[in-house]
Design a protein that fits this description.
Length: 276
């Protein structure tokens, strides 16, 4: 019994070894007549069927006169060549999802239509979330407005707070000076003045030092928003005032410049109102 099992396992091992050799190193068995004359099983359920031996393979070679461009629409598939499936009849009915097949999709494929619909849906949901989200404070609450909050009087007397407050006030005065120049001449060259007068990084640091030193955490929620709006207005203003030499500002550019000047001045005034 033991010897029978050993013979059985040896046969299995020999079979697996021969299969692995033929699969990974077919050149090793190329010289064996038995392997070279072996036929594949014609049953498609067991293996892929190969061409008959009596059929001569004649490759078609393209030439310059006849390039023989492949006809992918009528060319049989690999499974059809091997006889595993029968060639399906071509239908004149347009396929659902093919480009231009369905008028209701406007010439889009089904995947493109679904993708566009999904993108629009996500965009609508994002806009709805942006309008309904909680900003972190009650917009109608006025208890933290300027003149209604108590400041840290000890911090107000420090030299650092006084220096930063004076710097913010100077930035506001310079902004008002440039705005007056713009009102006097809508085509005034203001780009260099705005760029050199307002260092966004330095100004943000001055705002933050005043905010952390003087206001409590609840008030900082509102003042931080004012600071962000002030910085954003200055960035937009720097882009709006750009003007090429010899080119007058268009009415649209004049309106945009005026808007960002007034917006920036309003934000500065809202912040400085807390210290009056």
């Amino acid at each position: 019994l033991h010897s029978t099992k050993m013979l059985k396992y040896s046969a299995y091992a020999l079979l697996l070894g021969a299969g692995a050799t033929e699969a990974f190193a077919p050149s090793l068995g190329a010289g064996l007549p038995a392997l070279r004359s072996a036929k594949c099983n014609s049953n498609s359920r067991l293996a892929l069927r190969m061409q008959d031996d009596n059929v001569e393979y004649k490759p078609v070679i393209p030439t310059l006169e006849n390039p023989l461009a492949p006809d992918y629409a009528n060319e049989p598939t690999q499974f059809e060549r091997q006889g595993l499936v029968s060639k399906t009849e071509k239908s004149d009915k347009p396929m659902v999802g093919s480009a231009g097949a369905l008028e209701e999709f406007g010439g889009l494929t089904r995947r493109e239509a679904y993708g566009a619909g999904g993108a629009v849906t996500v965009g609508i949901l994002a806009v709805g979330w942006a309008f309904t989200r909680n900003p972190g404070y009650d917009r109608k609450d006025t208890t933290r407005d300027a003149g209604k909050v108590e400041l840290n009087k000890e911090a107000l007397g420090s030299a650092e707070v006084k220096t930063n407050l004076a710097a913010v006030q100077a930035s506001r005065d310079k902004l008002a000076e440039l705005y007056a120049k713009f009102q006097a001449d809508n085509n005034a060259l203001l780009s260099e003045g705005v760029k050199s007068s307002f260092n966004v990084v330095k100004l943000r640091d001055e705002f933050n030092k005043l905010t952390f030193a003087v206001f409590d955490e609840d008030t900082q929620i509102k003042t931080d928003r004012i600071v962000r709006n002030s910085i954003q207005s200055l960035v937009e203003l720097e882009q709006a005032v750009k003007l090429k030499d010899g080119v007058a500002r268009s009415p649209k550019r004049v309106a945009a410049t005026d808007k960002w000047f007034r917006q920036a001045l309003s934000e500065f005034d809202s912040f400085l109102a807390y210290f009056k």
